[in-house]
Write a structure and sequence with these properties.
4 helices; alpha+beta; 41% strand; single chain
Length: 213
């Protein structure tokens, strides 16, 4: 396996889009067997329920925030979007971009020159609001939490940015708890005492580990 494939396998690409006023997204992974990007998951009606500034960073110091979102996982992946992604990867512009990425991996300083997909790719097809290309640099897991150290390139509303984040995830919030023995909370209803307690526990844990990051 060459370095090109190894690099692609490490990335997770998120396509953000709107249908009417609802925010949706689907995620792409590199399929080694088929040699192309494929939609692995689709979610709909993403809504930000709460955002809390635990620590507001100044100068070079990072922000520490608690973000709570709700979303619905699609029962099936829309064939329209699958066809769009497949056809896009056969286009001349896309193939030219891939060649440029492969030939200038170490030399390019432009964020967009390192991104496989761009927002403009979907002009006139659907209302794409942004592209995020992420790679998990490091991951730590214990019996209750998972910490992801993530580097992300973004192309949103014509603005290209790069950011590094540390995400703390309470494993009880994940519908599939195969990563640990932690019991999954069936409902994310704020009236559920287990869920409310898990929020407080997660914030306190984030405060604790933020002192060492």
């Amino acid at each position: 396996m060459n370095n090109e494939v190894e690099d692609k396998e490490r990335y997770l690409i998120t396509i953000l889009y709107k249908v009417k006023d609802k925010k949706n997204k689907f995620k792409l992974r590199w399929n080694v067997d088929e040699g192309r990007w494929k939609i692995m998951k689709s979610t709909e009606n993403i809504s930000r329920q709460a955002i809390i500034d635990i620590v507001s960073g100044r100068n070079e110091l990072p922000d520490l925030r608690f973000l709570l979102k709700s979303q619905h996982r699609s029962s099936s992946i829309n064939e329209k979007y699958c066809n769009t992604i497949n056809n896009l990867q056969k286009s001349k512009n896309f193939l030219k971009r891939i060649n440029s990425i492969n030939n200038n991996k170490e030399n390019s300083s432009n964020y967009n020159d390192k991104m496989y997909f761009r927002q403009e790719d979907f002009d006139g097809i659907f209302n794409c609001t942004g592209i995020r290309q992420s790679i998990i640099k490091k991951q730590l897991i214990n019996d209750k939490y998972r910490i992801d150290f993530i580097s992300t390139l973004q192309d949103e509303d014509g603005i290209e940015t790069s950011e590094n984040t540390v995400n703390l995830i309470n494993l009880s919030w994940i519908s599939s708890s195969s990563l640990s023995e932690c019991e999954s909370i069936a409902t994310m209803n704020p009236n559920n005492s287990k869920f409310s307690n898990s929020i407080l526990e997660s914030i306190n844990y984030a405060r604790k580990i933020s002192k060492t990051i």
